[in-house]
Amino acid sequence: MVALPNDRGMTRLVELSHEIHHGMITYPGLPGPEITDHLAREASREVYGPGTEFHIGRISMVANTGTYLDTPSHRFAAGADLAGVPLSRLADLDGTVVRLTDREQRAVDRTDLASHDVGGRAVLVHTGWDRHWGDDVYGSGAYPYLTADAAAWLVEQGAALVGIDSVNIDDNTDGPRPVHTTLLEAGIPIVEHLTGLDQLPPNGFRFHAAPPLVAGMGTFPVRAYAVVAGNDGDAIR
Hints:
single chain, two-stranded antiparallel sheet, alpha/beta, 13% helix
């Protein structure tokens, strides 16, 4: 977490993304990224002037790697892709955290969300499941998810974006994937595999999760982060 001064006092930059590294597994059954050299530093010395070297890396990965964004194109062939979703739906969004940690119930329903003002906001569901990141438990069937009714309520209320710190916003035993279907059909982007939501206040922050401007792809990793206004010593609840 980085504190920066501005004309309103201090702001905090809060990292909400998992680090991507060679071979890591994000979702069970999907391959990990392969991070290699296209041009190694040693080889580059033969290309540039004496004492000059560069590194050009190469990464091969599935789009669903790390903390990533789902656009409507991920679910619907005619939906907006990474290049088609406007920045206004991905960056500088007023944020709200729905805190639902330390509970036995996996399903997040409409009643869990109803007390929150979500209209026009990035709604980030904090389940605490990110504590299992990197373990076999993370991708197991025990993770928290949203119900179809919760997704319908978020659409009714006009949420701008929905994120979760879990392996899937849907129950992966539910083949039709009602949450992806409902949110993406309404043009509401989804960010999965968030982390660090415990560092955010319930409200009063700006959320950012913009991917590269790639045409023809519906999903891609993002550097998700929040800008929190206030003094560096302010408590996070």
